[in-house]
Structure formats: C-alpha cells, structure tokens
Amino acid sequence: MDGSGATLAENVAENPLQGERFVFTRSGRETGGEVFAFDFYLAPGGGVPFNHRHTSQDEVFECVRGSLHLVINGQLRVLQAGETVNVPKGAAHSFTNPGTQEVLCRVEYRPAGRNEEWFRLVNAPVKRFGKAPGLLDLAPFILDMDLYAAGPPLWAQRVLFGWILAPLASLLGRRKRMLRTASQVYGRPFEW
Description:
Elements: E1 12-15, E2 20-26, E3 36-42, E4 47-53, E5 58-65, E6 67-72, E7 75-80, E8 84-87, E9 93-96, E10 103-110, H1 115-129, H2 135-142, E11 148-149, H3 154-171, H4 174-186
Antiparallel strand pairs: 1-2, 2-3, 3-10, 4-9, 4-11, 5-8, 5-10, 6-7, 6-9
C-alpha cells in the first residue's frame, strides 16, 4: 500500500505498445488537486511524437536516467539525467526516447487535472485486448483532459470533439465500452 491506500499494482499504468510505464507517486486527491506526479519509464523508440498542448496545465519533466528529447514550441531540448524542464501551459510539445536505454523521468502536472484517470483509461484496452484505443474511443473524454493537437485552432477541436465525435462515440457505445473495460482491468467501477 502507498499513502493513498492503493496497492502498488493500482498505482501503475502501462502501455507496452508505446513503451510507456507510469508509476503514480502523488495523486490529485492527495494534493487537493494541485499536483499529479508519477515516475515515467520510456523504452527506446517510445514517446508521444505528435505536438500537443495543455491549455491550463504546466508539465514538469525531471530526468533521472537516460536522455529524453523534448520539442517545445518547435525547439529541441535534450533532457539529460539531473536536468529539469517546465513545459508551460499552452506550449506545443512532444517527446521521444531515441536512445538505446530506458529513460526515467519524474513528471508533474500542475494542477492535477484528470491525468491519472486518463492514463488508466487509455491503457486499459492495451492491457485487456493488446491494442490501443481509437479516436472514437477517446473522443468522449478528450475535452475533459485539456489535451489538444498543436496545429488546428482550439475552437475547431472543441467543435469536432464536443459536437461531433463525442456524441457519435456515445451513440455507438464506445464511451460505455471504454468505462467497462477500465472497470474490468482495474477491478473496480471506473467512472468519468
């Protein structure tokens, strides 16, 4: 058990398809919503290579082991062990591990938002079925995440997800299926 009453296994989310493992160290519940923190392990070749932004959260990376390549607002930043970088809210960013060894970073989101639930939700189909969720599976949850692609205007993404894709996904049962899958994987009711 950790300080929140959760077992170690409940504090881990994995996505072997992208070489990611998240070990949650501080939840938003524990910090009154101020911080969500986790140890982030990234296999060689893994990462989130598409530019995205969070409009209301700062994201802090502290590299513990290895070398993480971050692109922030079009500028490459190679983060080495012992270095920390803050990705301010609104900054377009992506990251990869082009090296030959696993990277370990300590990551914080400020404020916490719903990131812990998001990582669990997104990784549940990978654990259960061995495949990543599709866009329609994620559509009902995207706007709650403050997660946007870096290129298209925010208003267009809000219209696309809020008025078109999320209602369509719910109509097709994708939202219920995602929640049911997460509930099965984590052995407790998963609500959003």
